[in-house]
Amino acid sequence: MNYIATFYTHAAALMTNRALQKKAIPSKLAPVPRVLSSSCGTCVMYTAEDPNLSEMDQDVEAVYETTDSGYRELLRNE
């Protein structure tokens, strides 16, 4: 499945990307789709069997699963 994680800070996005890659999970930094957030502007897009929520930095804003009809929110950290 494909996921998008948004963050409050760019550093948190970098840390999460590194954590996912250490677990051999394909991931990349990308601009956040504006429909999801306008916080730091950088998200992590990744593909995995599960969302790996434990690998998210503490400054994660939200995690979404991408679907054919859009995005399904899995986590919201306010």
How would you describe this protein?
With 78 residues, this protein is of the alpha+beta class. The protein has one helix and five strands. Helices cover 17% and strands 41% of the residues. Strands 2-3-1-4-5 form a five-stranded antiparallel β-sheet, with helices on one face.
Main traits of this protein?
single chain; 78 residues; 5-stranded antiparallel beta sheet; globular
Low-pLDDT segments, ≥5 res: none
Total E-strand runs: 5
Strand order of the largest sheet: 2-3-1-4-5
Shape: globular
Strand content: 35-45%
Number of helices: 1
Specify Rg, calculated over alpha carbons: 11 Å
Secondary-structure element sequence? EHEEEE
- Assign the structural class, choosing from mainly alpha, mainly beta, alpha/beta, alpha+beta, or little secondary structure: alpha+beta
Q: How many domains?
A: 1
Which range best describes the helical content: under 10%, 10-25%, 25-40%, 40-55%, 55-70% or over 70%?
10-25%
Q: What is the average of the pLDDT values?
A: 94
Give the SSE layout.
Elements: E1 2-7, H1 10-22, E2 27-31, E3 42-47, E4 60-67, E5 70-76
Antiparallel strand pairs: 1-3, 1-4, 2-3, 4-5
Provide a brief overview of the structure.
With 78 residues, the chain is α+β, with helices and mostly antiparallel strands. It has 1 helix and 5 strands. The protein has a 5-stranded antiparallel sheet, with helices on one face.
